[in-house]
Amino acid sequence: MSYTNNAQDPRRPERIVRYKPAAPQGANEDPTPDYMNVLSMIFSMCGLMMKLKWAAWLALYFCSFSYANSKVADDAKQIISSFMLSISAVVMAYLQNPQPMTLPWSS
């Protein structure tokens, strides 16, 4: 490209700076959704194995939190399997004992 040096042309080719996107930094990633996903798996297993309804509900809550805060690039299979495990924990806990949930710390 050649620019003519007109007095009416306000462009300055020597001042052009090409855009370079910033490199992604791994240190700025938030590990909270990953922690919530692990907690969801742990509480799901507690709900399934020990038939604890409150643990199954906590697993569903943690799974929802993990899904809401996950990035687009995260693995969808992990989130779906976590949801399915937590939902099955809730269903199985209520199939075993259909009575309303009572919390262990309340009388």
From TrEMBL:
Keywords: Membrane, Transmembrane, Transmembrane helix. Its main location: membrane. It is found in: Membrane. The chain crosses the membrane at residues 41-67, 79-97. Residues 1-32 are annotated as: Disordered. The keyword Methyltransferase does not apply. InterPro entries: ASTER (IPR005351). Belongs to the Asterix family. This is WDR83OS. It comes from Cordylochernes scorpioides. The lineage of its organism: Eukaryota, Metazoa, Ecdysozoa, Arthropoda, Chelicerata.
